[in-house]
């Protein structure tokens, strides 16, 4: 009888708890119908807006801004160096082409030395231009490179999974999941093409030997720029204007994505280890934030996120302080009344 009474009390307790939770849920639903309706409408509007906007609108605007800024920068530099062309030593071809070529060689810090300023004014202009160019390449052109890589990322995903017949949603998910990996592969592919094109051009147009052409390409894209091998013809310098810009930026992006890929690989390995390792008694003690000898789902998630390095103790403290500020009635939970009075 005692066992039956205990079972009945347990069952009644469960039913009572369920009915209380149900009543609370219904009360909340009665209290906030208009708020839920407004939230649904706002979500619908946001969904409609996101569906109506092209996916790369923001990137395209940024890319156009980058092109405009680059054109302005090169235009000012070309005018400067063209006006002081008589104060520059070296092998010259066309005045305008040489001025643009000197701009590109200076801003990318390649610095062959085939064209060098020799007057005070020309040297001052070169100093100003190289600092401005380094800032432009480092902060702006990298965004343009990101945009170009992202535009071709889906094409690369399709090519690598052409046998799997993935639909559009699966391709987008695959690209997003392995974003850094595909960016790295895409940049490596573009860099390889640029190296091959540069070597072929130097061999055919500048009439260099293969080894000399390869040496010139490597010293250029790494901005080493010894200067013993460079673009000396007018056609070669016209080609170099575009090739040097794209290749040097591509190399910078290649090593950036390589570092990101290494970091991401390490993070994934850490996450896998955290999720698969066995919990110990000390882990349970550390995860039990309220010291009630039981770890709730929220406490377990927080403990694992800290282990993965996703959040730290300082982040939790900041969020808890924010929660306490919003919890005006100190009930331990946020309600619409708290949000209105906070």
From TrEMBL:
<keyword id="KW-0472">Membrane</keyword>
<dbReference type="InterPro" id="IPR011992">
    <property type="entry name" value="EF-hand-dom_pair"/>
</dbReference>
<dbReference type="GO" id="GO:0009705">
    <property type="term" value="C:plant-type vacuole membrane"/>
</dbReference>
<dbReference type="InterPro" id="IPR003280">
    <property type="entry name" value="2pore_dom_K_chnl"/>
</dbReference>
<feature type="transmembrane region" description="Helical">
    <location>
        <begin position="65"/>
        <end position="84"/>
    </location>
</feature>
<keyword id="KW-0406">Ion transport</keyword>
<keyword id="KW-0106">Calcium</keyword>
<dbReference type="InterPro" id="IPR018247">
    <property type="entry name" value="EF_Hand_1_Ca_BS"/>
</dbReference>
<dbReference type="GO" id="GO:0022841">
    <property type="term" value="F:potassium ion leak channel activity"/>
</dbReference>
<feature type="compositionally biased region" description="Polar residues">
    <location>
        <begin position="7"/>
        <end position="26"/>
    </location>
</feature>
<feature type="transmembrane region" description="Helical">
    <location>
        <begin position="96"/>
        <end position="115"/>
    </location>
</feature>
<protein>
    <recommendedName>
        <fullName>EF-hand domain-containing protein</fullName>
    </recommendedName>
</protein>
<dbReference type="Pfam" id="PF07885">
    <property type="entry name" value="Ion_trans_2"/>
</dbReference>
<dbReference type="InterPro" id="IPR002048">
    <property type="entry name" value="EF_hand_dom"/>
</dbReference>
<keyword id="KW-0812">Transmembrane</keyword>
<keyword id="KW-0813">Transport</keyword>
<dbReference type="GO" id="GO:0015271">
    <property type="term" value="F:outward rectifier potassium channel activity"/>
</dbReference>
<keyword id="KW-1133">Transmembrane helix</keyword>
<dbReference type="GO" id="GO:0030322">
    <property type="term" value="P:stabilization of membrane potential"/>
</dbReference>
<comment type="similarity">
    <text>Belongs to the two pore domain potassium channel (TC 1.A.1.7) family.</text>
</comment>
<dbReference type="InterPro" id="IPR013099">
    <property type="entry name" value="K_chnl_dom"/>
</dbReference>
<feature type="transmembrane region" description="Helical">
    <location>
        <begin position="238"/>
        <end position="259"/>
    </location>
</feature>
<feature type="transmembrane region" description="Helical">
    <location>
        <begin position="121"/>
        <end position="141"/>
    </location>
</feature>
<feature type="domain" description="EF-hand">
    <location>
        <begin position="314"/>
        <end position="342"/>
    </location>
</feature>
<feature type="region of interest" description="Disordered">
    <location>
        <begin position="1"/>
        <end position="52"/>
    </location>
</feature>
<feature type="transmembrane region" description="Helical">
    <location>
        <begin position="184"/>
        <end position="205"/>
    </location>
</feature>
<keyword id="KW-0407">Ion channel</keyword>
<dbReference type="GO" id="GO:0005509">
    <property type="term" value="F:calcium ion binding"/>
</dbReference>
<dbReference type="GO" id="GO:0005886">
    <property type="term" value="C:plasma membrane"/>
</dbReference>
